[in-house]
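User: Okay, second chain of the day. Same drill as before: sequence in, structure tokens out.
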Amino acid sequence: MASASTNPYTEAGVDTAAGDLAVELMKSAVRRTHGPEVLGGVGGFAGLFDASALRGYRRPLLATSTDGVGTKVAIAQAIDKHDTIGIDLVGMVVDDIAVVGAKPLFMTDYIACGKVYPERIADIVAGIARGCAQTGTALVGGETAEHPGLLGLGDYDVAGAATGVVEADRMLGAQHVRENDVVLALASSGLHSNGYSLVRHIVAGAGIGYGDRAPDLGTHGTTWGEALLEPTRLYTAELLRLIATLDGDLDGDLDGDERGVHALSHVTGGGIAANLARVLPQQTWVQVDRSTWSPPPVFRVLADLGGLDLASTEGTWNLGVGFIAVVSPAVADAAVTALAADGIDAWQVGTVQGGDRPAEDFEQGAKGVDGGAVRLVGAYADGS
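Assistant: Same drill. Structure tokens below.
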């Protein structure tokens, strides 16, 4: 029988004191994402966000998204490096909101772990806070849950949800896409946060350790683990600036023909073709020209190790394209220039077509969306 001084919850494997310490360690990073709209600070039962600013909208639409990072966390755990996985989480959640042209307002996170190690939790949340600050998102709350017996002592998973707002007549989407629109690819920073089950399978099959040096991967990391943890590029702030720049005066109602940016697609699970098809109207199609770019070294090295050709990975990895913008032909060059000024390489990969399409196989929508059709054609710039 436990003594009166013993906490039975601690004996069961849950350390509430460690959880409290984790909150103290993360507070300053979280507060840096707060503007005057955030009320109540850190630690409340609910995060509070002053929505009175929405009074300035004629018809505000709230946009929301939720996601996780997937098995990329296994690599962070393997090399005990946790300060960038939160950036990946923001990329997976907040950048989805940008697809409809919405400005992110706030985000919450959830971390489930086998045991709370305060410094580790603080590192994860600090990464989330950095991503939130970069995208203009307030991190208003979260939860760290200790699940002994369900997760191993060193195991954790992360998830998050975010909310944004867009004026109804400024929302982007397939309804604005027109025949002859230009399709632009925006460069990724690498694998981002998709396809890591295949990555880990290839690395394990090749007998490579995450601590082994990785001189051929073309990233900032010196080891395989560091290279594979390259954070997801965040696009939200740059895309919102692009929309404002190309649309010019946003005070009046906008028709599809008056917009610069018509649709955006976040290239996540499913790859380029499936995700682009989701934001195209039915009866339209795009042939994405592989010859317009060369996938970065990390994709080539992994494919070679796995005995795969790059085409067979196109439904799993982004192959160097993290986002796609469908824009009016009149502003395509200006869009590329504006993105370059913001540090994002962009290039034309195709145009939107209507009517009869070639008989070859096309991807037609994904995630339950019955959209347009897309296929990748030709060989990549280096001939593969």
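The longest helix spans residues 118-135.

User: Thanks, on to the next one.
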